[in-house]
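Holo prediction. Input below; ligand is zinc ion.
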Amino acid sequence: MGELMMSESINSESINSEFINAGESIVQDWIVHTGGCHCGRVRFRVLATPVLIVQSCNCSMCDQTGFLHLLVSRSCFQLLSGEDNLTTYTFNTGTAKHLFCKTCGIKSFYIPRSHPDGYSVNARCLDPETIERLEIEPFDGRNWETNIDALRAATAKASDGTT
Ligand SMILES: [Zn+2]
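Structure of the complex:
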């Protein structure tokens, strides 16, 4: 919580209560990262560790875009602007909601099939200032059904602060 109070990027009046609650329950070294799309219409902030563990997925879609997944719970993410500038694309099972900025076309975050109750933030779309290091782990999304349980277990552990 101390980290949150010290962060310059926080305007306490604009934080939603859900976001604050997440801040109170997180492990101590979590900080606020900010990010957004290329044109700047879509902006968000996310609570996570300074060293980000992200997944590089080889599925048909991520392989084309180079999306680096930072998986976060819903309460650790807050959209600051651009909600009405997002458009949704779905395919296959339709569970994942791929959210694109209507103006610049960048998918800076979306609702992933792996974690439909949370978000996947594109680590490439985060402002670099607060990122200490990216640790990139491969995820074999071409064999999604085989690998998803291991990914869910690993990310649940990480958000517990038990890793
Ligand atoms: Zn944009």
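Confidence is low (pLDDT under 50) at residues 1-17. That is the main takeaway for now.
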